[in-house]
Amino acid sequence: MAPTAAAPTFAQRALSTTAARRSGQSPALPVHISSTGTGTLQTVTVPGKAYTFAADTYPVLGGTDAAPSPVVYSLASLSACSQVTGHVVARDLGIRLGGWRVDVAARLPTATLVSGAEGNPNWESVAVTLRVQTDLAGGGTAAEEEERFRHFASEVERRCPITQLFKLSGVRYESEWVNEKL
């Protein structure tokens, strides 16, 4: 019997859309992280990548505030994923983008997390303001430009996995999208 090649590990497998297209399924992006740590300080690695990042927490929770907290990373993920998804959506819609400015404000109740009270430790509310430079100005009437931008923003929120994670978790989610001239 001929030796068989070892199957690639999860971290080595590249994103392949060919088999998924043939089967009618959506392609999936395999993601894997690994972490080590002591106390509240943790180092997170992504197998096969050259970068790592650290997470800690606030002193009130026993941390040293030596690195961003997981709750800060969750909001940063929302900001970054909105921009990345916006890039993909803009490409699909033929929109040219310039700079982004994303501000996220959120309220996290701490009674369940800190003192063990009954309740939901999830975010209470998240408000996002996204200012995006686009080439939509000057391409039609003001109403047409506004409609194209609204469609773009709606598609970004629909297709962004992190936005959907927040929305589907029951968080009171609000967003304001501002179209700025490129």
Q: Which CATH first-tier class of the largest domain would you pick?
A: Alpha Beta
Might you state the CATH topology name of the largest domain? GMP Synthetase, Chain A, domain 3
Going across the major beta sheet, what is the strand order?
A: 1-2-3
Tell me the β content.
15-25%
Helix content: 25-40%
* Spans where pLDDT lies below 50 across 5 or more residues: 1-21
What would you call the structural class?
alpha+beta
The number of strands is 6
Mind telling me the C-alpha Rg?
A: 21 Å
User: What is the level-2 CATH architecture name of the largest domain?
Assistant: 2-Layer Sandwich
Task: Provide a count of the helices.
Answer: 5
What's the quaternary structure here? single chain
CA(first)-CA(last) distance: 63 Å
CATH superfamily of the largest domain: K homology (KH) domain
**Strand count, sense and closure of the main sheet?**
3 strands, antiparallel
Pfam families: OsmC
InterPro entries: KH_dom-like_a/b, OsmC/Ohr_fam, OsmC/Ohr_hydroprdx_reductase, OsmC/Ohrsf
Protein name: OsmC family protein
Organism: Trichocladium antarcticum
Key words describing this protein structure:
2 domains; alpha+beta; globular; disordered N terminus; 182 residues; 3-stranded antiparallel sheet; GMP Synthetase, Chain A, domain 3
